[in-house]
């Protein structure tokens, strides 16, 4: 682990170890006696798991090398589509006694959880059921489905990691302390820097899915970090727009977007010394907010300690307000189901793209969700159920 990037000066200690099947695991501690190194979290994993890359026995009794997920090129859209059928076997809404993201139970000899210690601050580990994975020694060459050049196929190399925000299964990201949120930002930045160095990785995406309505399969405060072997369609589209804008104006598109929002002020919902939160002018979701740094920053590793601390405080405030965006018939706040993720400039586009976080929800009213109907799902032609100004007005009227 000596090749890991150095952490910033924040009081966070990273402790690496390896799970029983060989996956990487990291503790990120901000509390004593662990942050000082006086004590160390449990590092051994007692589970009787086989090495994930060990040869497997096939149906006919022969031994075959393990294979990873593959991806196929969609010639109609120019997009790579990973095929990860093995993920059908991952845990889906297990009971409270079978939560794989909870700490180990004190005194228990064995449990099939992913965290060896009985407590933790923040942890990151490789996903047990990844949709992107590099198998050591396996070829990363492009082949063709059915031998036809029209259908390129290649291994879905890359990496998928899980980040747990709290050991408390009943908590949410909005309920963690500013110190813990700062540790989470540190972990995001640290893993982004490390994953970006993996051969073949083109882009790193840190994100959180929250709420059963979104499709979350584990009710525990956690997120994911994907290291893609391609530029995602969203990033590719933004890059085309950014490069066309630079060709016309000589300026950075995302810088101009932030400046335009600041000049207008109409859709800004929160500001701090280093960050601005606003509803984008062409918001397509019923609730959508972008959070951008005032300084031109390509990715999380490029942010300063002051920017990370400032973001932690602003983001927790924003999440608290979003959880009160909708209220039920009794006037009680309704926790917002959402997807929140960091758009970071890939190495190939650091001068064209700019760091920003996008948070959006499919809830359009109490008890009602936005379903992607024919126009959105079939043609990708979006129809909004509201206006960005109405979203911003609602967030502005919510006071902490």
TrEMBL record:
Residues 244-396 form the Galactose-1-phosphate uridyl transferase C-terminal domain. It holds the Pfam family GalP_UDP_transf. One of its GO terms (biological process) is galactose catabolic process via UDP-galactose, Leloir pathway. It catalyses: alpha-D-galactose 1-phosphate + UDP-alpha-D-glucose = alpha-D-glucose 1-phosphate + UDP-alpha-D-galactose. One of its GO terms (cellular component) is cytoplasm. Residues 29-70 are annotated as: Disordered. PANTHER family: GALACTOSE-1-PHOSPHATE URIDYLYLTRANSFERASE. InterPro entries: GalP_UDPtransf1 (IPR001937), GalP_UDPtransf1_His-AS (IPR019779), GalP_Utransf_C (IPR005850), GalP_Utransf_N (IPR005849), HIT-like_sf (IPR036265). Keywords: Carbohydrate metabolism, Galactose metabolism, Metal-binding, Nucleotidyltransferase, Transferase, Zinc. Its cofactor is Zn(2+). Its EC number is 2.7.7.12. GO terms for molecular function: UDP-glucose:hexose-1-phosphate uridylyltransferase activity; zinc ion binding. The active site is at residue 222. Residues 39-50 have a biased composition (Basic and acidic residues). This is Galactose-1-phosphate uridylyltransferase.
